[in-house]
Amino acid sequence: MSDLHTLADVRTVAERLWPESTAEAWDRVGLVTGDNSAPIRTILLAVDAVRATVDEAVQFGADLLVTHHPLMLRGVHTMATDTAKGSLVVDLIRAECALLAAHTNADTPEGGVSDRIAHLLGLEHSAPIVPGAKLVDGLGRVGNLAQPMTLRALAERLAELLPKTETGVRVGGDPERLVQRVALCGGAGDSLLDHPAVRGADVYITSDLRHHPAQESLEQSLVTGGPALIDIAHWASESLWLEGAASQLRAELPGVQVVVSKINTDPWQLRVG
């Protein structure tokens, strides 16, 4: 490739890194807005396409905003500027900044969201909880810590690895329990609470755990054995993917400036009590 890349070139690279065919059926990934022939010199990566990151992309002069969460995940019927999504899309188009999303297709591959968390935790012999087409691909990860540690120590380690959020790291289970077998799923993963690989782990790490599913899982563990739970902030868990994704894009697109947003787009800004 030459040093002058177009949006079409970036889409080709994104498809190789995060094939759209591997996204969940309900997901809406890929290009949201942009002209395939437009030159791409600067790319901004963020977890969310929200007012703060769209403004950042426009002010930075980015030609492309790549986000993990799709802006158009749920159907809309207007792009009017008095709607939240409409105002974002119109501002991006006016600034000639394209928008592309890599969501569940970026969750599952080697180097994807869950794989990144497993790597940072140093999990040995890590494998997908739900395997994909390739042995190294799939939903979530399960593996072993090099040495057992207490649930409290693991939670503290996660708190050091993750960017700070108001909700922090929440723990369900005996803080002094020794854990070694770890199952995890970046983003919202309560759909895997009853998966045999999760039930067979000492601890399950994920985000957005609701009261009743979490309580039922912990109660079942008291009867038949099962994992303690660690709930981490959704945005924080997925933000760990951004730097690796940026490195992949830089390697594939020489001459393109790829920058990771430092804006915290976690929706919770204050905790009282």
Short key terms for the protein model shown above:
single chain, 5-stranded mixed beta sheet, Udp-n-acetylmuramoylalanyl-d-glutamate--2,6- Diaminopimelate Ligase, Chain: A, domain 1, alpha/beta, 273 residues, 6-stranded mixed beta sheet, 15 strands, globular
Question: In DSSP terms, counting alpha (H) and pi (I) runs of 4 or more, how many helices?
Answer: 9
Average residue-wise pLDDT: 95
Radius of gyration: 19 Å
**Unreliable parts:** none
Largest sheet features: 6 strands, mixed
Output the helix-strand order.
EHEEEHEHEHHEEEEHEEHEHEHE
Number of strands: 15
CATH class of the largest domain: Alpha Beta
Distance between the termini: 55 Å
Counted up, domains total 2
By secondary-structure content and strand pairing, the structural class works out as alpha/beta
Describe this structure in words.
It is a single chain. It is globular and about 60 Å long. By secondary structure, the protein is of the alpha/beta class. The protein has helices spanning 7-17, 51-60, 84-94, 104-107, 113-121, 151-161, 196-199, 211-224, 234-252; strands at residues 5-6, 30-33, 39-40, 42-46, 64-67, 98-101, 124-127, 130-131, 138-139, 141-150, 169-172, 178-188, 203-207, 228-232, 257-260. Helices cover 34% and strands 25% of the residues. The protein folds into two domains: 5-105, NIF3 (NGG1p interacting factor 3)-like (Udp-n-acetylmuramoylalanyl-d-glutamate--2,6- Diaminopimelate Ligase, Chain: A, domain 1, 3-Layer(aba) Sandwich); 108-236, 3-Layer(aba) Sandwich (Udp-n-acetylmuramoylalanyl-d-glutamate--2,6- Diaminopimelate Ligase, Chain: A, domain 1), CATH 3.40.1390. Helix 2 packs parallel to helix 3 and helix 5 (113-121) packs across helix 9.
